[in-house]
Amino acid sequence: MIKVINLKEGVYPDVATFMLVHEIEVSKLSDVNVIIAIHGYGSHGQGGEIKKEVARQLRVLKSGKQIIDFVKGEQWSDNHKHYSELVKLEPELILHPHLQGFNSGVTLVWVKK
Q1: Per-residue pLDDT tens over the stretch 29-63
Q2: For residue 29, what is the domain's CATH number?
Q3: What single string gives the DSSP state of each residue in 7-59?
Q4: pLDDT confidence of residue 43
Q5: Beta strand 2-6 with 67-72: parallel, antiparallel or unpaired?
Q6: Which domain holds residue 81?
Q7: Full-model pTM
């Protein structure tokens, strides 16, 4: 199952990362395999503070083996190293509206069970 969470609605970066970590922990106990975190891309595509903090937190979680991996929306394509595995796990990722057009305002999180 895929869960979409919106981290950009009126929150500060530290609140957004707290919300993300909470959703990851909840997802580990459910049937959610992939989280699509909407964080926005910042002013003129340069990368906002929430996007930067989400990426930083996900690197920490990955290195601590709390998640399997994450994929930035702008990297999501059939050439990505995890594409086949994730699409096999969740086929609806192929046509998911948040993942069209190299969307730099989202990140996929592969939840570790």
Answers
A1: 999 999 999 998 775 544 588 999 999 999 999 99
A2: 3.30.1370.110
A3: --SS--HHHHHHHHHHHHHHHHTSS--EEEEE----GGGS--HHHHHHHHHHH
A4: 58
A5: unpaired
A6: 2-111
A7: 0.91
